[in-house]
Amino acid sequence: MDWLQNPEFLARVQFGFIAMFHIMWPPLTIGLALVLFGMEAAWVKTRNIFYFHQTKFWTKLFLINFGVGVISGIPMEFSFGTNWGPFSTASGDFMGNILGFETAMAFMLEAGFLGIMLFGWNRVGPKMHLFATAMVAFGSTLSAFWIMVANSWMQTPAGVKLVDGKFAITNWFAAVFNPDLPYGFGHMFTACVELSLVVMAGVSAYYLLKRRHVDFFRPAFKWAVVALFIVAPLQIFIGDSAGSALAETQPAKLAAIEAHWHTNKPGEGAPWALLAIPNQKEQKNDWALEIPDGLSMIVTKTLTGKVVGLDHFKPDDQPPVWIPFYAFRVMVAAGVFVAFMAFWTLWLLWRRPERMSAARIGDNKWLLRGWLLAIPAIYTAVEAGWMTREVGRQPWIVYGMLRTSEGVSHLPANTVLWSLVMYALFYGVIGIAALVFASRTIRKGPSFDAPPHAPGRGGHGAAHTAPKHVPLAPPAAAHDQLTIKGGA
Fold first, then answer.
1. Does a cis peptide bond (omega within 30 degrees of 0) precede residue 395?
2. How far apart are CA 483 and CA 190, in angstroms?
3. Separation in Å, CA 312 to CA 261, 304, 473
4. CA distances from 277 to 169, 241, 289, 374 (A)
5. Is 282 a member of any domain?
6. 409: left (phi over 0), alpha (psi -120 to 50) or beta
7. Where does this polypeptide localize (predicted)?
8. Where is mean pLDDT largest: 207-216, 460-469, 478-487?
9. Residue 362 to residues 280, 354, 439, 440, Cα–Cα distance (Å)
10. Residue among 377, 444, 343, 331 nearest 202 (CA)
């Protein structure tokens, strides 16, 4: 139990726990904001009330997720000052500005227009409301950009030099647009979109299995699947590109991710370990299932390309191997599973349309259950990917320039331990509350109230007339109700 008396280890566990909990929420906020903008834009353009109802339903889940994301992110700001004071002091000129940009430029924009998006249906015209939704989507994406700027700089620091223990900015452009940013932000942003589409498909699959609101959720299910047919393979491609870039920017991380201990000799390929039992003490794998020359092909796109092994680095400069090795494979497996589900579903829609009709889609129980399983799978992929990224950077808090041990505050172990316990209880409460509210929202289902105004007519207050309906209409009972309310 010596680890209980190690303040550095406890501080790392605490920040890791906070970050792992927090990262469950922003991806859905970012991706779902884009979905909401698309649906509301369709409503404004087509005057089809079906899109209004879709927007209103998914907004409920967005609001729950946004709230928990904001609450769970606040302790992260505290941790920089309490547990990581030396790091904050050293990197303050850069990290302080970047986090300030995120708050002033992104969060404030998002939070300001969120009020109009949620409560402005009866107070502003449809185009203004659509603009507010667009700003929420843009603000959430901009927030992700600045956060990934900060994190990518920690992975591949650029545009700075160490002066008396502090990072002095020499080139702001190079620091912001550091080598990892295109891959880090691209991979994370695509993950946000993919996760949101999987949640959309999974929630829709739940209703289709229950044969409830089939006319409402079958189109949403199809939209999500068609989008995932593009996004899931794109994410795999971006991930592959990011992995290849690690060979240049973070070779130790790449070697740890692949449990690659020894640099391959000229003219020989590096094998790719599908599975292995890494032994860091002995600097080898006790057992491995390998594909000859596979790692060289993946990283360099040649059979004999050089891939630097962990033997190139001192043991004290090596990342721990077990966590990034297996976390990476969990991420890949979950991502491939989502891509498979998208291809399988699209094949059925194309080749077996009768099985995917409104009358029979609920009979595809294995398919729909697969989409229910895809929801925890995609969240697992995000968590595993973040673990791969962060643990693979160790033992550096700023790669190659500042060690994690040098960035931690000198606090008593008991102080860090008790704050960790309190954070765990706090996050447990809000996590359970979020799941309860989300479950109730999903079980309750969509409402089919009349919109506050007909798109394109302007004005405020109650509806002037019911919008016209095109083939994608809500269920008949709701249609009748809307007709009575609208007077059309």
1. yes
2. 40
3. 9, 18, 63
4. 42, 26, 9, 28
5. no
6. beta
7. Cell inner membrane; Cell membrane
8. 207-216
9. 50, 12, 21, 22
10. 377
Phi, psi of 125 (to 5 degrees): -70, 165
Structure tokens at 367: 């398919």
Which residue range is the domain that position 100 belongs to?
18-177+426-488
> For the chain, how big is the Rg over CA atoms in Å?
25
Tens of pLDDT, residues 196-249: 999 999 999 999 988 888 888 888 999 999 999 999 999 999 988 888 888 889
User: Which helix H or strand E contains 284, and what residues bound it?
Assistant: strand 284-291
| Nearest CA-CA partner of 10 in 430, 408, 438, 413 | 413
E-assigned strand segments in 395-459:
396-398, 402-403
Q: Give CA separation, 10 vs 13, 16, 87, 159, 397, in Å.
A: 5, 10, 16, 31, 15
- Give the number of residues written for the chain: 488
List, in order, residues 6 or more apart from 311 with CB less than 8 Å away: 261, 262, 263, 283
Distance (Å, whole) CA 473 – CA 464: 19
C-alpha angle 476/482/484, rounded to 5°? 110
What would the two tokens of residue 35 be? Answer: 């979905």
Q: Is the dihedral of CA 149, 150, 152, 156 positive or negative?
A: positive
Cβ atoms within 10 Å of 472's Cβ, excluding its own: 16
Tens of pLDDT, residues 317-327: 999 999 999 99
Name residue, tokens 């360099």. 300
Residues ≥6 apart with Cβ < 8 Å to 338: 194, 198, 228, 232, 374, 377, 378, 381
The span from the CA of 303 to the CA of 364, in Å, is 43
Confidence of residue 477 (pLDDT cuts 50, 70, 90): very low
Beta strands in 375-460 (DSSP E): 396-398, 402-403
Q: Is residue 463 part of a domain?
A: yes
Domain total of the chain: 1
Residue 444 inside a domain? The answer is yes
Specify the pLDDT at position 138.
93
Q: How many Cα atoms sit within 13 Å of 39 on the Cβ side?
A: 23
Q: Is residue 363 part of a domain?
A: no
pTM, rounded to two decimals:
0.86
The one-letter amino acid code at 29 reads T
Cα–chain center distance at 45:
30
φ/ψ region of 265 (left if φ > 0, alpha if ψ in -120 to 50, else beta) reads: beta
